[in-house]
Every structure is written in structure tokens, then in C-alpha cells.
TrEMBL record:
Record-linked Gene3D superfamilies: Aldolase class I (3.20.20.70)
One Gene Ontology MF term: orotidine-5'-phosphate decarboxylase activity
Protein name in UniProt: Orotidine 5'-phosphate decarboxylase
Record organism: Kaistia dalseonensis
Family listed: Belongs to the OMP decarboxylase family. Type 1 subfamily.
Length: 235
């Protein structure tokens, strides 16, 4: 992995219902934040055009679309996404889908992330979905599949980050949602950690939404997380 700017390690999730709200958050955060995630909620409210404007403003964009479809559809969807200037794009970590995405990416600069197991899921959720293995084992299997498929990184909870580094190696990015500063509400997340814990476990990028965008002072909240990241890296 190349040396990352501290600010690029924090990805702020713009998990809001309208572009106007997202624009207000970006304006409030200013130069403190360089990297934003645009997920499904915002994508269906004009978020793709907004995301392209972020790129034009010099921001990095993580398009969290979690593609999973037949090979041909995934391949050509990624071909189109690769033309938009985004930094990251997510694919569900099914081997055929990942191989199709890598083919669609071609020689573009788009970096593909394999979503292993959602951080809102635990052992009981996997069992209810019909999986016969636990969270850690399924994440490990999918991380190994992602490496074989030629993906650029994985998305996993901070609980699995340390073990996954041994599987994916130094060259793949590990992106961890489920980040909750000490004292923050967990919400619907089930596998969580503080920013410092995630960085010390080997995460490259931390995705943080509610603890920043719902804070009384979002800019101060972002700065506090960046400071925690910096401190964790220096230990």
C-alpha cells in the first residue's frame, strides 16, 4: 500500500436522504475531509451526479453500490462506473461477480472493494440466512476469494481486520465501517470498534457516518477522529 495522507484514511459516509443535506455536510466539513462515501440512499436521490461534482471539486468518492448480478451485468456496470472518476466501488464478495468486476474495470484507476460480511450482521443473522459457518470464517473465505479474483481491497468489520491482513497481504486495502468513537451509540451496527482500535488492527480506511454527520459540530467530530487515527499510527 502507498503511504496514505491522514485525511484520506477517514471516509465520511453521506448517509442522508437528499443531495441538499449532503452538500451542507460537505460545506461544513470543508478541507477537514477529503473522502466521502455515497451509498444507496443518496444514489437514488440524485447522488450520482452529486458524487461526480465531488470528484470535480477534488474530493475522493467511495461509491458504495454493492453490485451483485449476472457476470455480464456486473462487468458492464463496472465499465461505466470506471468512467466516472470514483476512487472505490463495492462488489459483493461472490467469486464470479468479483471476476466480472475486475474484467469490467480493465486498466482504469477505479479500485474495487469486496464486501465480505456486513457489519450489521452477527452469527445469528448468518444462521438465519442459511450459512453454516460463523462470521470470522465467512469473512476469511471471502477475503481469500477477493485476493484470487484480483480485487483491490476488502470491506470487513474492524474485528476481523487484523486476521484479514494476513490473508490479503500488504497490497490490498482494508476498509472498515462500524467505527464508533468511545461513547458513541452503536445503532444498528453489531461488529464495531473505536477509530484507534481499527487502525491498530490494520485498517487502511475507516468509514464513519453518524458519529460525524449527526454530531452537533461535525467538523470537530471529524477532527477528533483524525487526531485519534494519527495517534494510533504513531504508536
Amino acid at each position: 500500500m502507498p503511504l496514505l495522507d491522514i485525511r484520506d484514511r477517514l471516509i465520511v459516509g453521506l448517509d442522508v436522504p437528499t443531495v441538499a443535506e449532503a452538500e451542507a455536510i460537505v460545506s461544513t466539513l470543508g478541507d477537514t475531509v477529503t473522502f466521502y462515501k455515497v451509498g444507496l440512499q443518496l444514489q437514488f436521490a440524485g447522488g450520482l451526479d452529486f458524487a461526480r461534482r465531488l470528484v470535480d471539486q477534488g474530493k475522493k468518492v467511495f461509491l458504495d453500490v454493492k453490485l451483485l448480478d449476472i457476470d455480464n451485468t456486473v462487468e458492464h456496470a463496472v465499465e461505466n462506473i470506471a468512467k466516472l472518476g470514483f476512487h472505490f466501488c463495492t462488489i459483493h464478495a461472490y467469486p464470479k461477480a468479483m471476476r466480472a468486476a475486475v474484467k469490467g474495470k480493465g486498466m482504469s484507476d477505479l479500485r474495487l472493494l469486496a464486501v465480505t460480511v456486513l457489519t450489521s450482521m452477527d452469527e445469528a443473522d448468518l444462521a438465519a440466512a442459511g450459512y453454516g459457518v460463523g462470521t470470522a470464517e465467512l469473512v476469511a473465505r471471502r477475503a481469500a476469494d477477493a485476493r484470487l479474483a484480483g480485487m483491490d481491497g476488502i470491506v470487513c468489520s474492524p474485528e476481523e481486520a487484523r486476521a484479514m491482513r494476513a490473508i490479503v497481504g500488504a497490497g490490498m486495502a482494508i476498509v472498515t465501517p462500524g467505527i464508533r468513537p468511545a461513547g458513541s451509540a452503536v445503532g444498528d451496527q453489531k461488529r464495531v470498534a473505536t477509530p484507534a482500535m481499527a487502525i491498530r488492527a490494520g485498517a487502511d480506511h475507516l468509514v464513519v457516518a453518524r458519529p460525524i454527520i449527526a454530531a452537533n459540530d461535525p467538523r470537530a467530530a471529524a477532527k477528533a477522529i483524525l487526531s485519534e487515527i494519527d495517534t494510533a499510527l504513531s504508536i
